[in-house]
Automatic annotation (TrEMBL), chain A:
It comes from Thermocatellispora tengchongensis. GO terms for molecular function: iron ion binding; protocatechuate 3,4-dioxygenase activity. Keywords: Dioxygenase, Oxidoreductase. This is Protocatechuate 3,4-dioxygenase alpha subunit. The keyword Oxidoreductase applies. It is an enzyme of class 1 (oxidoreductase).
From TrEMBL, chain B:
This is Protocatechuate 3,4-dioxygenase beta subunit. InterPro entries: Intradiol_dOase_C, Intradiol_dOase_core, Intradiol_RC_Dioxygenase, PCDO_beta_N, Protocat_dOase_b. The keyword Chloroplast does not apply. One of its GO terms (biological process) is 3,4-dihydroxybenzoate catabolic process. Residues 70-98 form the Intradiol ring-cleavage dioxygenases domain. Belongs to the intradiol ring-cleavage dioxygenase family. Its EC number is 1.13.11.3. It comes from Thermocatellispora tengchongensis. The lineage of its organism: Bacteria, Bacillati, Actinomycetota, Actinomycetes, Streptosporangiales.
Length: 151, 221
């Protein structure tokens, strides 16, 4: 097979809001999907400031796909299927010349998680909230930096 | 595996990377066939409409600017066409202004141009957009900073790991050497792959200039 050289990645930039997000994007599964969960969180930069121009995408088995842009407070939300293992999360933003992959786990019992340094493992585990939803914050840099995947 | 041509996360000349580039080491997961990253994402938006690829026909009037056709093939690194794949594009208008509230620089909006489109590739991986040539625009990265004219492309493959967002540039733009986003790609040959080729055969007489641009994403795992 020939090996063609790849097209390089470039940033999504700040001005994608009229093109990429769509109203039903965050709702990866319908409301009545068995065991659907609500997932939300913030994206923060290396100063701990919210990132108001990130685009997040999730993927799950069966082709389940969701897309949500962060708001002015850096907040995003999804309705997703309760994962058997994890939810794949992809992050684009102004200032990210290439995207970031990470994983959202609901609990810590997984061989991949145990392969991650214990002091960083918690960055991959969503926290249950009193209302039954899950919170997963993304820290791009610095204190509590999320574990990102070499993919 | 082809060489990784992508820019580094930290590219200080592009100032927004400084606080957003991760600093800790990345972790390489073992991607077995069940890995969620290898799922083919089903884009749940409304079906792609017949005119979604034509950015000049979304309003009652015609947009101002130089009408262009941008077409090419979406291939994977094994040379296989990526069929029925979604490509989304967005861009500034001919004056260099985005239809986005965040872009407030003193250039006119065009009521007949939004600057967003999409299409599905055909069985040969081919896509085609009709649009107008975007203008250069100023940004505040450094003194007298201007982005070369570009069209943003967002591309899906058949696995989530193939997801790509990039920018297509126009040949011969004098702003290339001054643009830290384009120059963040360190390999000159890789930068060249982001530049479309003017093509007289794609050009339609009395109507629109034609550009050819192929996109290559990583192969399936």
């Amino acid at each position: 097979m020939p090996s063609l050289p790849l097209t390089p990645s470039q940033t999504v930039g700040p001005f994608f809001a009229h093109a990429l997000p769509f109203p039903e994007g965050p709702y990866a599964v319908p409301e009545d999907h068995p065991g659907a969960i609500l997932l939300h969180g913030h994206v923060y930069d290396g100063n701990g400031d919210p990132v108001p121009d990130a685009l997040l995408e999730i993927c799950q088995p069966g082709g389940i796909f969701g897309r949500c842009e962060t708001d002015k407070d850096g907040r995003y939300h999804f309705r997703a299927a309760r994962p058997e293992t994890y939810i794949s999360l992809l992050i684009f933003a102004r200032g990210l010349l290439r995207p970031l992959w990470t994983r959202i786990y609901l609990d810590g019992d997984d061989p991949f998680l145990t392969s991650v340094d214990a002091d960083r493992r918690a960055t991959l585990i969503a926290r249950p909230e009193p209302d039954g939803s899950y919170r997963f914050d993304v820290r791009l840099q610095g204190e509590g930096e999320t574990v990102f995947l070499a993919i | 595996m082809p060489q990784d041509p992508h820019p580094p996360y930290l590219s200080p000349e592009y100032k927004s990377t400084v606080l957003r580039a991760p600093a800790r080491p990345f972790v390489a997961p073992k991607l077995d066939p069940e890995a969620v990253e290898l799922v083919d994402p089903v884009y749940g938006h409304t079906p792609v409409g017949e005119l979604d690829h034509d950015l000049t026909r979304q309003h009652p009037g015609e947009p101002l600017g130089e009408r262009i056709i941008v077409t090419g093939r979406l291939l994977d690194s094994d040379g296989k066409p990526v069929r029925r794949a979604l490509i989304e594009v967005w861009q500034a208008n001919a004056a260099g202004r985005y239809a986005h509230p965040g872009d407030q620089h003193p250039a006119p909006l065009d009521p007949n141009f939004t600057g967003a489109g999409r299409c599905l590739t055909d069985d040969e991986g081919r896509y085609r957009f009709v649009t107008i040539k975007p203008g250069a625009y100023p940004w505040r990265n450094h003194h007298n900073a201007w982005r070369p004219a570009h069209i943003h492309f967002s591309v899906f493959g058949t696995q989530f790991t193939q997801r790509l967002i990039t920018q297509m540039y126009f040949p011969g733009d004098p702003l290339f050497p001054y643009d830290p986003i384009m120059q963040s790609v360190r390999d000159p040959e890789a930068r060249e792959r982001m530049v479309a080729r003017f093509d007289l055969d794609t050009t339609e007489p009395e109507w629109a200039l034609g550009y050819q641009w192929d996109i290559v994403i990583r192969g399936e795992a």
